[in-house]
Amino acid sequence: MSKEIEFQFNRPNDSPGYLLGQVTMLWQRKQKKVLDPLDLTQTQFVLLAALGWLSKKSKAVTQVDIANQSNADRMMVSKVLRTLEEKGFITRQEHETDTRAKTIRLTTQGERVLQRAIIEVENVDLAFFETLGTTLSSFNKNMVQLIEKNSD
Which Gene Ontology molecular function entries are recorded, alphabetically (predicted)? Predict the structure, then answer.
């Protein structure tokens, strides 16, 4: 018989990583249900939302800006933006001052689908996290701490 595998945690529910993975999968399933009819994946939504947010402050949002805002890999962002452009949700144009960069903008269709997606996703989020009640703010602060501590 092979050696018994050892774990640091006594039970799966003692492992924060395991629990985070479980919560993430359940949350993503709920998100997928509302994003599928809009022809968006979770990743596409995140990048569109980052673009929408950044566009409130700047007319010259770049791929790097979107990657930084969404904490996503730059190559993955490039591929997903190409897909969003093919769907007619964004345009990519030459940057006015940086010849290596492209300015990313939402199209009218992209604005419409993003606004619908934001409403759906925020409603799903409120329903999903409502069980936390008055501790939601503390939960959010803890997540921000984890993001800040673990960002490279």
Answer: DNA binding; DNA-binding transcription factor activity
Q: What is the CATH number of the domain that holds 112?
A: 1.10.10.10
Q: Which residues of the chain have pLDDT under 70?
A: 1-2
Does 73 reside within a domain?
Answer: yes
CA distance 39 to 20: 27
Give the CA-trace dihedral at 93, 96, 100, 104, to 10 degrees.
Answer: -40
pTM of the model: 0.88
Residue 63 CB burial class (10 angstroms; 0-12, 13-18, ≥19)? buried
The residue behind tokens 């939960």 is: 139
- Identify the domain containing residue 116 by its residue range: 27-150
H or E element in which residue 5 lies: none
Q: In angstroms, how far is the first alpha carbon of the chain from the final one? A: 42
Is the residue at 111 inside a domain?
A: yes
In this prediction, residue 9 carries a pLDDT of 94
Question: How far apart are the C-alpha atoms of 67 and 70, rounded to whole Å?
Answer: 5
